[in-house]
Predict the structure.
Amino acid sequence: MRLAWWLPLLLVVIAPARGQTADGLAARIEAVTDAGPVRHGHWGLLVVDAKTGETLYERNADRLFRPASVTKLFSTAAALVTLGADHRFETPVVRRGEVDANGILRGDLILVAQGDPSLGGRTGPDGSLLFEDSDHSYSGPRSRTTLVPADPLAGLDHLAREVAAAGIKAVAGEVLIDDRLFDPAPSSGSGPRRVTPIVINDNLIDVVVTPAEVPGQPATVRLHPATAFVSMDAQVRTVDSDGPRRIEVIADGPRRFRVRGTIPVGVGPAVQIYEVEEPADFARAVFIETLRRRGIEVESSPLGLNDRAKLPPREAVASLPRVAVYTSPPFSQYVRVILKVSQNLHASMLPLLLAVREGERTLAAGLAAEGRALKSLGIDLGTISFGGGAGGSGADLVTPRATVSLLRTMSSRPEFSVYRAALPILGRDGTLARAVDPDSPARGHVWAKTGTYYVEDGLTGKTVLTSKALAGYMETASGRELVFAFFVNNLPLEGTEDGDASEATAAIGRVLGRLCEAVYVDAGPPAAERPAGGQ
């Protein structure tokens, strides 16, 4: 089996031991980090008592490591303390022109984007933002992602209903998206590549493939949300239950793509994604379609472009009459989605939202604002470096000590309950749902952010894991509260020549889960509670 090299890593036994000394804890940790192929990685670790700051274990704690998505601990912390957990996005629709006696708007309808990363698309019945452990933005030919049970156009539907309630029955002019809140920037993580002020369904169209009831028949392929904005040519065949599940979405040009592949009979729907080329054009199209579904006649075609040249000056837009507004859930809900599923697009927006807060528009200004926020939290900026908010920039570097310092500081702040609750829980949800076995002693006792980043070695075709990381909070078997940061960088992964590194990287994630188990059972009580003269 091609990935058999990592199987022994999963067999490391971490057994509880009473009265374990500090040296015993070190031995347990090093039995994990220094065994098998992972011993070739560059390790950085720090475990401290959350209350006293006592160091239980450290290795290379002041060296710089690539944090991957552990970066999100820093960007969400900066955004939380700057914007506030209760911050809400208000997205208005304004009109330019008058509404006549027949309800016809003799002018334009303008949706003014305010940087809401969801715009209602993940909102559940209770007003919270929903997530699945494997987010749709990570969909690939072999991935097994699931859509949240929510309407991706819910925010637009809310706005359309309010437009109708304002007495507008028809729009004789244009429907426009004002997306000038900040300058577009590249995302610093996998998934959607462009960060823009308008986001509908993460600027993705989900391609949902359902197998036929018998092999040999074509599968059913539908778009989510359903829209005429794109043209799809779908040919996916249903195969035997033990057949391959390989589905590809192949772009054929602007707004055109093919869906090809096979799906086994009897499995649930498979989700793939198509990233829209121009988010404002997409938002305009689905807003027009939503307005029409609400009985509002719109002369403009949804297949047209969002012509920014037709927008009035930004200062003039602010004075136009509002006809609708969508108010988001609190920002704490966005932090939860970002951290639970490592949502890269939303995290990449955070520095730009901080820039807007200071009257600026650029990613550079936003990162500078993030730096000031982190400095106010006591972080030495000489021990960290970021090029974006998500963790995929080459500039992203942190030390284990800086990471633990941030986590300890946040634990004493009023935002802490929101911050910790937003983290994945070991063995239960988010990106940590399958990091340990169901009977793991540490399951449910660790709240931490994961990080994964890898590249392909062009010489061999193998994958090099440039970063696998985990940092957060732990309650040990003895009731001790700890803060920790685990990083392993630059680890070659054998058996990945076929380009699919998902199993191998997941195996390294389970190695970090074993580290959590080692600390959970062997940390012991704080120094003040140990017998005199003992360990």
